Protein 1
Amino acid sequence: MFLTKSAEWRRGTGWVSHPSYPRYVYGAARVGHASRAAPFGLFGKVPLRSVVATSTDGGRTFGPPVDVMGGVPQTEIFGSFIPEVTVGRDGVVYAITREKAPPADPNKPFTPTSPAGAPGAGGRKFVSVSTDHGKTWKTTMVDDSAVHCGGYEWPPAGKADPNNGNLYVVFGQSGNQSGSPVNIFFKASTDGGKTWGKLIQLNDDKANVDHYYPGINVAPNGRIDVAWIDFRSSLAFDPTATPKSERFWDLYYTYSTDGGRTWAPNMRISDRSMNKNEGYTVNDNFGLMGPAGVASTNDTAYFSWSDSRRGTVETPVEDYYFTTARFGGTKSTSTSLTFAAGAATGLLAAGVVLVAELFVVRARRRRIPVG
């Protein structure tokens, strides 16, 4: 079915519903010239818009797509990217996205002192909130960073905790200079997106390499699970690796059991490093992009990712791989993390024992064709 024309639809998690409101289903997209093959001279100059369409009959039919920032003047927010949609307590809908700033001005290039929203800037994050199932929206700011517009700063991912109404957002963000590495950041709101806590960096390696595409989920018991693509493995092959020369990445994970105030040390989830040039997701020639898939229950975190281990530089291919991290025990002064394949890693954290069984999964859900 068509929800809107000329749209670039988000990955599967852009379609969302809520178990307490099963007849409502939401689909998210951005509209405008998003394609790299846009008519000459238009790419980057047409303000992309974030839209959400609502179904009130369980997904059989959809209403018209609604611009979630329709009430914000274009002079304040030039455009925005594909929104991440999540449904919280009492059926409140959140559409989280990143700003699409005006195109860079060659006569006034972006500098570290340029303001947020300036031509060539990037980084401001927004949340649009609807209390009437997507009919109307109110937009507020999550983060007002003015950073250099470039790199793999995919729109933020977010998840509402249906138990307490908290809203959590994660995103990759670089510094305010060209070539700055992208790191993974987290922010939390305890009042439905009206105000936000401090910016917390989740990757704990501090390396001068990139960290991309975080995915997030919240377990019924409130545990927050976050996973992302991480290039720190490049340093094992080339200690001088930078965002311009990095090649090898893994999937990394962390979690919080106190609403995002503190986080477990980073854990490597994938059992081997991938060469970005042997696949599509972070390949410089393709850049299909896409965050890690994360699902959560009280005792298990589930992960999926696009994996290029069967590809070559000449023939890049990707498969979907899957693994689980299982939590066990009730009281403990230490936590151990073991891998069924790969090295064992020790971890200290109070209150839970985590056992992650990393399967070299060959249940590939979909093969991406070449050519």
Protein 2
Amino acid sequence: MPDTVDALVPFSPDRPKTRLSDTLDPEERRAFAEAMLSDVLAALDGAGFTPRLLTTEPTGRDVPETVDDRPLTEAVNAALDAHGPGSPLAVVMADLALATPRALARLRGSVGASGGDGDGDADVAIAPGRGGGTNALLVRHPEFRVDYHGASYLDHLRVARDIDASVREVDSRRLATDIDERADLTEVLLAGDGAARDWLRDAGFGLDAGDGRVSVERARK
């Protein structure tokens, strides 16, 4: 395995975090999405990945990017086709605000990537999200292609079985927690330590444990 591993980070700056529309206005949603992206890119860099944005429009960031406005499944599979066999490729979602280099190193180690935290030799490593999604993948099997429709975690297990690819699941709270809804902001304030947490604090968000269950509140807008 190479010392660094390429990683795709899908990002949609033109339609960010629509399920947070009851909490953040469009400009805020974009700023918060950009903050989470910064955290993910930093974590990938710290884990020995070389990130490339897979974006629906140019971002202006100092990161290599591929612009593709097709649906996620089609865009990622086109990137897998272009990447070609012979080296692993990760796909890591841009809203994993709790991701750390250590958590992502476990993903690397699951396929035996150099420098990874582990000694696995799987063809595909999967970090499932809550609710059946797929938050991160690391693929080294040349025939594996993604399917992000519906319960993609189950779909990816099926794809791996169909091509006789070995799979290792990465059970990680930090990689399982994608930030989509207001309730998810609580996790960022509780366990985040990067730009996304700082953005929420600056925007007036804080924790509320008044009813015995921790939730998020906004003191001002």
Protein 3
Amino acid sequence: MKSGSLPAKADPEQQRWFRDTVLKPLMKRARQGKATLLFADASHFVMGGDYLGCIYGLTRRFVRTFSGRKRYNVLGALDYATKKLTRVANATYITADEVCQLLRKIAEEYVGDAMKPVFLVLDNARYQKCEAVRGLAKELGIHLIFIPPYSPNLNLIERLWKFVKKGLRSQYYSDFKAFCERIDSIIDSTHSSSFDAISRLIGKGVQVFEGITPASNNSFGIRKRTA
């Protein structure tokens, strides 16, 4: 049995509506080359975090980790069609200023073709939904699409972050620079050497939290996979 987390306040009906009436039509347009569809989110990679995998055996084995808690923050926008990641990164914090930086980068790369509008899917974090971000997006010609609350499954870039973290596992990083460079190298491969792997993760399917059946009296339940 494979376990996973389920946001307690997720609304299956709202998720299904968003997937079927907003997200899937945009995904289809992006595949046809009639729109640019980007999925945006920030991931915070902590050096010294637990990136261990599993090895079956009688002996427990350990992998060294860095003793500090330095963090590499990556705010990215994943192109659904090409799998290229446009990003802003730092070792401090992600704020509305970084979101605005990302919007400007997106505008430089994608905005300009009136026949191919740019849509950016993102969650409801305050620093992404503030007036400064909304105003700049409108000025730059970028359409912001906010997913329903408690719906990380609808933001397909989350699958990319899992792919990056998988690439960090079972290795000791001697310094923060090497740690950041490894993350950057994985990200840089998404639209080149890792394109096929990312395409399998981020294709036509979008999961929603529906079809829940109780697994026990003290659990959320078992979720069936949906298209």
Protein 4
Amino acid sequence: MKKTSYKNQAQFNLPKRPLFIVLSSPSGAGKDAILNRMKELDYPLKYITTVTTRPQRATERDDVDYHFVSRERFQEMISNNELLERANVYGSWYGVPKQPVEQALSRGQDVIVKVDIQGAATIKKILPQAILIFLMPPSMEELVVRLKQRHTEPLSDLALRIKTAEEEIKQLPLFDYVVVSQRDKVDLAVSDIKAIITTEKCRVTPKGITL
């Protein structure tokens, strides 16, 4: 009997399923540090830059850390249906631009966005196939230390951020995965996120977006 060889046979017609990954956490848990490290390592994802009306900080770069826009421009983007989701966080608006997400997914490219807990909940309703990752601080005590040390908000806002973080952590069941963000161990968190992506890619029935 002639042996079957798969070497030169046509590939299976498996659907393209790019992943839509949502990274969310309480303020100060380290989302930016982890995403910046993934970019440094050239991890192959489309990193979506969030739009915000928040004032730009001295260490931030426009169109890199965020797209900083006026409130008028943000409202215009809402009116033109340019945002996948939006949320008011501590008095400023944040939103995920729709066009770069759609373009990347249409190319079969995996996408990652950083959003607050409200945004993650909204995206899950719109795209239930999205992979939601919750970035967890080792403890509330550690989170308080980080918030104090970064000196980006007045002390008067600190109590509100701590209380909000406590409520946000209660939303953990909304997410698919949790990654602990430990101080000075950014690479460990990055490895955990890469492992999650690998796991999702190996699913028999993946949660990716079918194209």
